[in-house]
Amino acid sequence: MNYWDSYWKSKPASSCLEGLGAAPRLEECWRESAKIVTKEGNGQTSPKRFLDVACGSGAASTKISKECESVKIKFTGIDRANVDFSLENPIHSVSFYNGENFNAFFKRSESFDAIISNFGIEYLELEEIRTILETKTRPGSLFIANCHDHNSLVSFTSKEEIKALDSFLNDRLLKKLEVALSQGFSVSLAKDYLLRLKQLNDQSEGRLAGAGVTEWVIQQLSKSQQRGEKTCELDMVHSVFEDYKSRLYSQINASLKTPKILNLLQGVSEECLKEELVRDSQNKIVSKFFIFRML
Ligand SMILES: C[S@@+](CC[C@H](N)C(=O)[O-])C[C@H]1O[C@@H](n2cnc3c(N)ncnc32)[C@H](O)[C@@H]1O
């Protein structure tokens, strides 16, 4: 889980919807969900209570809150990483169970009018998801989620990136050069290192540069050169990208959980209002979006 902490530290205001700009259909799905919420919230007497699962920096809550201007919502965000967010419209409020406090959420007895999640709930343990469905909803609650799909572009790209990262992390020549650089920095060793990195990057169709490896390596090498240091350590680059690889694996594993969540939902819901494979402008699968009403 450290990898999510470092992810959110480096991108505090980011959302996992970023990079999916080519999927306006996903935006539409969230807008359509907000319309259902608004319709059902008309004539409310007290604020609606929504649970944003694996909320990150609040993509799902933000989407819903922006579209629901007239319906007061109390959002609760839960996430195992240390991350939180705020909402622009002051009629809505948000509270968190995050980081070390995450497990405390499960000890509370409270239910929600809607469970929402954007690329999030599928990261939880199946037992945790079952608990949420069985104890945190009430009859008529909505379940609105956008989840990773195993056949999506995201899963495909993650697998390709893992292959590329492995070619970098396990390359024998680079390892030898790293040992040499850690014993004595020289421009010619640095050049050899960059040359080999370029070869690996070309072999992976630019994926190493795309993932940021090249930038990190250049930064470390030039720091040593500019500071006139006698040695250069590249361990840090290794740990950053081992971490990144773990995050990619967790994304792939999460996508495998989506069909299991749908199975669980079928047992505890009254009706399925939507189950859609969201596609981008080139018809590639981006995710699976579904809305259920609970029994
Ligand atoms: C792909 S991000 C999505 C975040 C946010 N919903 C968004 O759309 O921007 C996945 C989130 O799941 C959280 N996460 C990963 N594994 C988790 C777990 N086992 N329990 C709770 N949260 C988890 C991460 O910290 C991260 O914030």
Describe the protein.
This protein is of the alpha/beta class and 295 residues long. It has helices spanning 2-10, 24-41, 59-67, 104-107, 126-135, 153-169, 172-183, 187-203, 207-211, 213-226, 235-268, and strands at residues 48-53, 73-79, 93-98, 112-118, 137-147, 269-279, 285-294. It has a seven-stranded mixed beta sheet, with helices on both faces. A hairpin with a 5-residue loop joins strand 6 and strand 7. The mean pLDDT is 94. InterPro entries: SAM-dependent_MTases_sf.
In short:
This protein is α/β, with parallel strands linked by helices and about 300 residues long. Helix content is about 50%, strand content about 20%.
Show the helix and strand layout.
Elements: H1 2-10, H2 24-41, E1 48-53, H3 59-67, E2 73-79, E3 93-98, H4 104-107, E4 112-118, H5 126-135, E5 137-147, H6 153-169, H7 172-183, H8 187-203, H9 207-211, H10 213-226, H11 235-268, E6 269-279, E7 285-294
Helix pairs in contact: 2-3, 5-11, 6-11, 7-8, 8-10
This protein binds S-adenosylmethionine.
Bound molecules: S-adenosylmethionine
Spatial gap, N to C terminus: 33 Å
CATH homology superfamily name of the largest domain: Vaccinia Virus protein VP39
DSSP E strands, number: 7
Question: Total number of helical segments?
Answer: 11
Taken as a percent bin, the fraction of beta residues is: 15-25%
- Give the averaged pLDDT, no decimals: 94
CATH architecture of the largest domain: 3-Layer(aba) Sandwich
Assign an overall shape. Answer: elongated
Q: What structural class results from the helix and strand content? A: alpha/beta
- Domains (count): 2
Order of helices and strands: HHEHEEHEHEHHHHHHEE
